[in-house]
Inverse folding.
DNA sequence: GTCTATAGGGAGATAGAC
DNA sequence: GTCTATCTCCCTATAGAC
């Protein structure tokens, strides 16, 4: 929660770690940096986590938990399927920019995780992907074998925002979510200039 | 070019480095690993490159060069603008999966590059992005402030394929390029199941 | 739950012979 | 252009006191 509290506890360490992993990646981050950000000494990290890899796995886990929670919180809004998709796109973007550094760390660092860590996370990750497949099946009418591909393209668009979107800039997260959703469903051609 | 040649030379080292950076990221890759893959000793790397960062910058440079070359090679095909976009999407995917490891290394590792390296590369990268903005302006009719955003979404979709697409799987690169282009231009809703 | 002290290893890089 | 040998630094992790 804080960077300088006297006893940050497990969660404080976890959050400082996630922030570093986002900024530098896993390998480039040292336990000493995480400790310094947390306001404790490096050796104290090992009271909360057995190893740096263990800490990394905990960050990835929390990243998924935040995503799944946000997805479930959108709930079964009884609107059109297009608006339901928009709500979930907005929620996913929210996890990247508004709900702490965990999901961002997951998205940017998962790919570079050591194989053992990655295998440990995959089952949880699958649950989130299944939720999206179900959602998309209710929204678009593509062939069954195309649907996971379209989901991956949408994920690619959404997750790439972590590399370039500035939540304090001209475009708001709401606007970005609307743009991504409309582009995904109706295509870039539908966005006529003469609006 | 080869992993075990007696004198791999600068290019062999560069290629081995790119492969490692794709697989492990920059920080997790050691100069000793690159040397071993190249068939030389670690100290010999420093005959070709002043430092590991220097080698990294050379890999990123080459990654852009490959992208720009592929873009230019598509040329001014006098087809419809949709088909021209398809050709460029196919060319970009080709740089990720068919033209060596340099572009893949650029896409996956650029974000984690040390600030000095990144700043050195940005101007070259800008040239590639300008080419795409120009291409998209001829293809879609979106508002001027939306166009760069739409390009970033398309880049996000295309570049994410490096994390999940298997060029030896069921779907070919040609099919993937067609799917991405059609989804980008016309949206996922246009892909009706009853085809 | 945090500290000091330190073990043990591997990293990037250099010197100088061939 | 590549080698062997080595420097120096900093990494993860442990031991044991408070």
């Amino acid at each position: 929660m804080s960077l300088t509290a006297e006893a940050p506890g497990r969660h404080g360490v976890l959050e400082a770690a996630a922030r570093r992993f986002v900024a530098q990646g896993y390998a480039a981050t040292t336990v000493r940096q995480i400790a310094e950000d947390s306001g404790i000494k490096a050796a104290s990290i090992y009271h909360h986590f057995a190893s740096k890899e263990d800490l990394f796995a905990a960050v990835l886990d929390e990243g998924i938990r935040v995503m799944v929670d946000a997805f479930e919180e959108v709930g079964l809004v009884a609107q059109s399927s297009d608006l339901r998709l928009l709500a979930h796109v907005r929620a996913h973007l929210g996890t990247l920019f508004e709900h702490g550094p965990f999901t961002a760390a997951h998205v940017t660092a998962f790919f570079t995780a050591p194989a053992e860590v990655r295998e440990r996370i995959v089952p949880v990750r699958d649950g989130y992907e299944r939720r999206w497949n179900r959602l998309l099946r209710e929204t678009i009418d593509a062939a069954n074998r195309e649907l996971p591909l379209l989901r991956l393209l949408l994920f690619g668009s959404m997750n790439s925002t972590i590399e370039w979107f500035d939540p304090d800039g001209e475009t708001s997260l709401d606007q970005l979510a609307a743009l991504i959703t409309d582009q995904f469903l109706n295509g870039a051609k539908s966005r006529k200039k003469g609006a």
Remarks:
- Chain A touches chain B through 48 residues (CB under 8 Å).
